[in-house]
Amino acid sequence: MTRPVDSGVIFIARLALSVLFLWSGVMKLLGYAGFVGYLQATGVPFVQVGAPVAVAVEVLGGVFLVLGFKIRPLGLFMAAYCIVTAVLGHDFWNVTDAAMQRDMVIHFCKNVGMAGGFLLLYVTGAGGISLDGARAPRGGRGLR
């Protein structure tokens, strides 16, 4: 069982992670043609499948984070998603322009850091301020 302060901190962490995904997913949706063009220009495979999947993952993942719904499986899934998008979308090792390479390194590391945050959510669960917490049986042991 988590302490109230732990649940509050986990809630803030979920919101902090959700901001990036909700913003990014909505911006990809609003500028969908540009997003698809970017993916094609960077050589991402299966763009016609990957683009709608990326938008759905980011928007739905962001909503699930806010609500605290299915956080443990979401944490594992989003950690993997962050690593895959780091490798496919921020391949700094293929960039020759120094300024662009620096930008790609920053984005790559950001994705790796977010993956770490998602792995922590996998371990902690959603906390008490969540749909998962509201559905958890009371009096159990361990973190919700």
UniProtKB/TrEMBL annotation:
<dbReference type="GO" id="GO:0005886">
    <property type="term" value="C:plasma membrane"/>
</dbReference>
<protein>
    <submittedName>
        <fullName>DoxX family protein</fullName>
    </submittedName>
</protein>
<feature type="transmembrane region" description="Helical">
    <location>
        <begin position="74"/>
        <end position="93"/>
    </location>
</feature>
<keyword id="KW-1133">Transmembrane helix</keyword>
<feature type="transmembrane region" description="Helical">
    <location>
        <begin position="7"/>
        <end position="26"/>
    </location>
</feature>
<keyword id="KW-1003">Cell membrane</keyword>
<dbReference type="Pfam" id="PF07681">
    <property type="entry name" value="DoxX"/>
</dbReference>
<comment type="similarity">
    <text>Belongs to the DoxX family.</text>
</comment>
<feature type="transmembrane region" description="Helical">
    <location>
        <begin position="113"/>
        <end position="134"/>
    </location>
</feature>
<keyword id="KW-0472">Membrane</keyword>
<dbReference type="InterPro" id="IPR051907">
    <property type="entry name" value="DoxX-like_oxidoreductase"/>
</dbReference>
<keyword id="KW-0812">Transmembrane</keyword>
<dbReference type="InterPro" id="IPR032808">
    <property type="entry name" value="DoxX"/>
</dbReference>
<feature type="transmembrane region" description="Helical">
    <location>
        <begin position="46"/>
        <end position="67"/>
    </location>
</feature>
